[in-house]
Amino acid sequence: MVNSLKSKRLRGIKEYYFSQKLNEIDLLKKAGKNILNLGIGSPDMLPPQAVNDALVEAMNDPQCHRYQSNRGMMELRDAFSQWYKRFYCTFLDPEREILPLMGSKEGIIHICMAFLNKGDEVLIPNPSYPTYTSAVKLANGIPKEYSLKSENNYEPDFEELVSSDLRKVKMMWVNYPHMPTGKEASKEVFKKLRAFCRRNEIILNDLAAVLHMHNRPIRDFIAFNFLAFFIANGNLT
After folding, report:
1. Which has the higher per-residue pLDDT, 49 or 5?
2. With helix as H, strand as E and coil as C, how does the chain read?
3. How far apart are the C-alpha atoms of 149 and 28, rounded to whole Å?
4. How many CB atoms lie within 10 A of CB 52?
5. 12-68 pLDDT tens trace
6. Distance spanning both ends of the chain, measured CA to CA
7. 84 burial level (CB within 10 Å; 0-12, 13-18, 19+)
8. Given a cut of 50, is residue 228 above it in pLDDT?
């Protein structure tokens, strides 16, 4: 009975990958197994004391317990803008180009719902973040995988992409540093992505873990003028 009440868009949507794995881990722990979980990068240490103190202080501020603007605080958006200027050498207008979200999944599904019509195809890397495929299906789009292989440094095979049927492709997801390998992309890859998407009028989306540990921040992607077709979905993982 319950299955008959589900919408058609839920067909083909499976249980979230990490939900399955966490259930498996719980069963193994109950069986007495000692499990070292290297899956989800969940923090195992406290935030800096100054952060904790600020949170406690904010909890006692009546203004912090009201409904917030759907756009987020201007101070927060301005801080994001300054951060992108500092680390990515680009200016994002906090009034028009920055929107704080609850998490990356919210951004992924809203982008898909906003831009995809029924039957639109979306290029999704394999391997990649499992949420891409589910969000595309929920938006009535059609996932179209492209392979990222170790022998090609986990970069798109542009010859293979160009030779494929792109007539229905409206969007492309990339993810650098790549999940799950951690592989970064070169400037040359970003240049090819820009040219490929512009030539085929494809919306390019990047879900990037922006606070990753490197000797220098990755600036190359946003430094190019992608603004006509590019959406950056940065998270604090």
Report:
1. 49
2. CHHHHCCHHHCCCCCCHHHHHHHHHHHHHHCCCCCCCCCCCCCCCCCCHHHHHHHHHHHCCHHHHCCCCCCCCHHHHHHHHHHHHHHHCCCCCCCCCCCCCCCHHHHHHHHHHHHCCCCCEEEEEECCCCHHHHHHHHCCCEEEEEECCHHHCCCCCHHHHHHCCCCCEEEEEECCCCCCCCCCCCHHHHHHHHHHHHHHCCEEEEEEECCCCCCCCCCHHHHCCCCCCEEEEEECC
3. 32
4. 11
5. 677 777 788 888 989 999 999 998 877 666 777 888 999 999 999 999 999 888 888
6. 39
7. buried
8. no
- pLDDT tens across 195-209, in order? 999 999 999 888 665
CATH assignment of 101-235, given 3.40.190.10, 3.90.1640.10, 3.40.50.1220, 3.40.640.10?
3.40.640.10
Q: What is the pLDDT of residues 79-118, one digit of tens each?
A: 989 988 887 788 889 998 888 888 888 889 989 999 999 9
Contacting residues for 81 by C-beta, under 8 A, at least 6 apart: 91, 92, 93, 94, 98
Sheet harboring 121-126: ordered strands across? 142-147, 121-126, 169-174, 203-209, 230-235
Tell me the β-bridge partners of 205. 173, 231
96 alpha carbon, distance to own chain's centre:
20
Sequence length of the chain is 237
Global pTM value: 0.78
